Amino acid sequence: MRQILFHISLDRPWSFGPFGNVQMFGPFGALLVLWTLMGVWQLINRYRQGGKPNADDGWDLVRWVGVCILLSCAPLLGAFLRMRGAPAFQDGLPIFGYGFMLFIAVASGGWLAARRVVHHGLSGDKIYDLAFWLFLSGIAGARLFYLVQYRDRVFENVSTLPEFFVTLISLWNGGIVLYGGLIAAAVTYFVFCHMNRIRPLALLDIITPSIFLGIGFGRIGCFLNGCCYGDQSTLPWAVSFPRESATFGALVEKGLVQPDALCTPPLHPTQIYSAIDGFVLAALTLWYFSRRRRNGEVFAIGLLIYPITRFLIEFIRGDEPGLFGTRFTISQWISAGMFVVALGYLFWLSRRPAILEPLCTEPLSTPSKQRSAPLKCAPSAAR
C-alpha cells in the first residue's frame, strides 16, 4: 500500500565543508561515484598488468560515461521537474513500490536460474541476457494487453498526442495484465533459444522455479501499488487501502466508495494470495526438478497447476468484470485455455522418450567427425 517507497534527491546540494556545496544525485550519487572510480581503477590496473583493450573495455567505458552524464544532469532534471510542478517528482526521483518489486523479481529469478544453469554447461551470463529480454518483452506485452482490454476506460479523457504517449507508459498508475506479459515473454523465449542453440524444454525446466519466484515478488508489488485487489471480506486478514492507493481510486470510479472516505472497505488481499501461490509453486517445481524423467516435465507441472490456482483466486478478485455473459473474467477464460493446453502438452510429452537431453545443442558449424565432442552453447553476449 505504498505506491512510492522513497525519493532520491535530484537537486539538493551536498555539503563538502570548506569545499562548499555540490549538487549531487541524492545519497545514491555517492555510490555511483564510488562505482565509477572503482571501474576506472580496474581498467588502469588491467593495463598496468599488460592487458590489451577489448570489447568489454568499450562497454565499461560507455557505462562509466553514462554514470557521469547522469550525475551531471540530475540537478537540471530536478529543477525542471520542480518548475513543471510534477507532483510525484517534487521531492526527487520516486522509487515506486511496484517497479522496485519487479526489479526484485527479475533479480532474484535471474540469480536462482544463473546458479543452477552452470551445472548444465551454460554460462550464467546467458540467463541474465535472457532475463533482460524477457523483462522488456514481458512488461510491453502485459501493458499492451491491459491497454487493449481496458482501452475505453484508459483513453477516455485522452485528447492530445502527448497525453496518448504518457498514458501508454504510465505504469505508476497500475495497468498490466500478467497473461499478456507471459504470452509476449514466451515468444521472446523461443526466439532466444533458437538464436543461441539451446533446447527450450531443457532450459524451461531450469527456469520454471525462477518464473514462479518472480511472480511471487511481482504480486507483492501489486499489493504495494493497490492493483489486482479483491472483493469485500470480513476475514481477520482483510485489508483496507488508503485514499492515495490505486484501489481507492478504482472503487470511487465504480461508485463503491465515497470520494471523502478515509479508506476502502476491508478487501481480500488477493495480491498476497497470488504471491503465496507463486512462492509455493516455485518450491514445488524446484523440488520436482531432480525427479523429472524427461525434459519439459517441470514446466508441465507449473503449466498445469498455475491456471487452476489463478482460476480460483479470480473468484474473489474485484477488479475485473465477467465476459461473454458469465461471471468468468478474462483471466479465468485464459486460465481455462491454458489448462487445456497443459493437458495436451502433457499428452505430447508422455509420448516422448524418457531421456534427459543435454541443455545445449551442437553448433551447426561443427564438422561431422567431431560429433562426439562436448556440446557447447553459443557464446554469451552479456557485458
Layout of helices and strands, plus pairs?
Layout: E1 4-8, E2 13-15, E3 21-23, H1 26-48, H2 55-84, E4 93-96, H3 97-117, H4 124-149, H5 151-154, H6 161-169, H7 178-196, H8 200-225, H9 246-253, H10 270-288, H11 297-314, H12 330-350
Antiparallel strand pairs: 1-4, 2-3
Helix pairs in contact: 1-2, 3-4, 3-8, 4-7, 8-10, 8-11, 10-11, 11-12
Structure commentary:
The model is unreliable at 363-375 and 379-383 (pLDDT under 50). The strands form two sheets. A two-stranded antiparallel sheet has the order 1-4. It has helices spanning 26-48, 55-84, 97-117, 124-149, 151-154, 161-169, 178-196, 200-225, 246-253, 270-288, 297-314, 330-350; strands spanning 4-8, 13-15, 21-23, 93-96. The chain is mainly α and 383 residues long. The relative contact order is 0.10. The chain folds into two domains: 1-91, no CATH class; 96-231 and 268-361, no CATH class.
